[in-house]
Amino acid sequence: xxxxxxxxxxxxxxxxxxxxxxxxxxxxxxxxxxxxxxxxxxxxxxxxxxxxxxxxxxxxxxxxxxxxxxxxxxxxxxxxxxxxxxxxxxxxxxxxxxxxxxxxxxxxxxxxxxxxxxxxxxxxxxxxxxxxxxxxxxxxxxxxxxxxxxxxxxxxxxxxxxxxxxxxxxxxxxxxxxxxxxxxxxxxxxxxxxxxxxxxxxxxxxxxxxxxxxxxxxxxxxxxxxxxxxxxxxxxxxxxxxxxxxxxxxxxxxxxxxxxxxxxxxxxxxxxxxxxxxxxxxxxxxxxxxxxxxxxxxxxxxxxxxxxxxxxxxxxxxxxxxxxxxxxxxxxxxxxxxxxxxxxxxxxxxxxxxxxxxxxxxxxxxxxxxxxxxxxxxxxxxxxxxxxxxxxxxxxxxxxxxxxxxxxxxxxxxxxxxxxxxxxxxxxxxxxxxxxxxxxxxxxxxxxxxxxxxxxxxxxxxxx
Length: 464
Fold this sequence. Notes:
The termini are far apart. It contains 16 helices and 9 strands. It folds into 4 domains: about 10-130, no CATH class; about 180-250, no CATH class; about 250-395, 2-Layer Sandwich (Nucleotidyltransferase, domain 5), CATH 3.30.420.10; about 400-464. It is elongated and about 125 Å long. It has helices at about 15-30, 45-65, 70-95, 100-130, 135-140, 145-150, 155-160, 205-210, 215-225, 235-245, 320-335, 350-355, 360-365, 385-390, 400-435, 445-464, and strands spanning about 180, 185, 200-205, 215, 255-265, 280-290, 305-310, 340-345, 370-375.
């Protein structure tokens, strides 16, 4: 990816996380948008409105993806794209018939492109107004932040956290992990004396705010100690602490499990042998572990419950691939391992985090468990599931096609050996021909004379 000037090298690793939050914010706007009722247009008007939206999206994608467009031009098309998103949400909520699968995929591409551009703008603006770390997830899940993002811009979202006097907009808590008890209504820090010996679950700030949970007294004490300088923790120290100091004594292994999944779309090598097969397919891989894990660094041979790969015939949509992967894992947990406790699933696809339970099958399966939590994790922290998928060239196919593939490989080996034998013979003849040329300038033209001389020599020798 090419970054715009002004983005510090130390901030580049945050871009992907901010991009995922921006995409999630746009989809949340579409889901929660309140539109005034309008009369459903006729079929011809629907087609015209749909074509207009598609044309505007294509024009925006061309400008945003062009290396010749200036920064100002891209920003103008970002503003125009926000208008498109508002119109899309209105048509979707009013069920005008304008929205179809093709338009939906176009909008997904537009949101992805916008998020990349706006993530860069966000970091540039942040570097101008503060050097403090910001809890990005808390910021984008704040009340009204989505409307500000869609109605104004990403810079205005950042500006609000320095204007409003609210605990919600404090920017120094990005390295804090909060915990809740299964039946409690408050959130705690890990050192809370009240929670000692109890089963704890880590929760995101958005989860806490959505449920209106109140802080325990341990939270204010923690912040006071931090303000006094008693708690100083870098991001690296925080990540290490989450792995090495994970207290599994409060969590019963049989009560929860953790799953890491990865997905990709690959060319189907069996398509050339059967054109009825898709030319591409989605491949997913998964690693199921016992207990509550915070990171793939905690995966060991002892806590792996199961792992594998799967195949779906989806040619381009990685979201559907990862969504089906979640369904396959849930099905495996229920019917193969007879597990129905808490399930924590990590995926590096930010859109899947929001849409996985929109699948009717997944929604029914999730009701068989106590809780199913799907969380986003960066690709850099999901390498083991990724490697498992990459190690498998193809995972299934009709046996006749696989045998045909094997026969092709064997035939190639035979041809290769024959080629090598002919090459050796050719080289030997070439050497002999070069030897003859040392006595005759043009052996082919002088060959009849050579034969005649040999015949005369033979007769002369016979007459003697």
